[in-house]
Amino acid sequence: MRRVARVVLLDPDDRILLLHGHEPDDPADDWWFTPGGGVEGDETREAAAVRELAEETGITDVDLGPVLWRRRCSFPFAGRRWDQDEWYYLARTTTTATRAQALTELERRSVAGARWWTCAELTRTHETVYPTRLAELLRRLLDEGPPAGPVTLDTEIV
């Protein structure tokens, strides 16, 4: 089980930053997802969240908050199955310009860019977004604030 730290990054207008990914050899097989990635060595999940955000977006000026959600997922990608235990951290930033700084070779072949989304845009989209209930989760977060403790989301198997 791969340990993963993800970031629910919100700007001053409460927009969320999502990355646009696709299968390396099939750009038409695409989806949107939160920045983040695998924990390396003895790194903490918090450190992994900040590092991955910097590598994937160039954004380093963030206030990392609590773990909002935890999710287990399993999905095919780049010719293998990935089994992940994901923790989603809340973060805030005033920086909205993005520029990938240190993508891996696989990320260079499979990440097409980034976009800030409003909750309304997420609710209306017909594009694939992970986690699949992100619009609903974001709406609850914006309306009620962070949960008292991490919420365990349904396991997603694709």
Automatic annotation (TrEMBL):
PROSITE patterns (alphabetical): NUDIX, NUDIX_BOX
Domain Nudix hydrolase: residue ranges: 1-140
Organism field: Streptomyces lasalocidi
Pfam families named among the record's database cross-references: NUDIX
Source organism phylogeny: Bacteria, Bacillati, Actinomycetota, Actinomycetes, Kitasatosporales
Molecular-function GO term, any one: hydrolase activity
Keywords: Hydrolase, Magnesium
Family in the record: Belongs to the Nudix hydrolase family.
Needed cofactors: Mg(2+)
PANTHER family registered for this protein in UniProt: GDP-MANNOSE MANNOSYL HYDROLASE
Protein name: NUDIX domain-containing protein
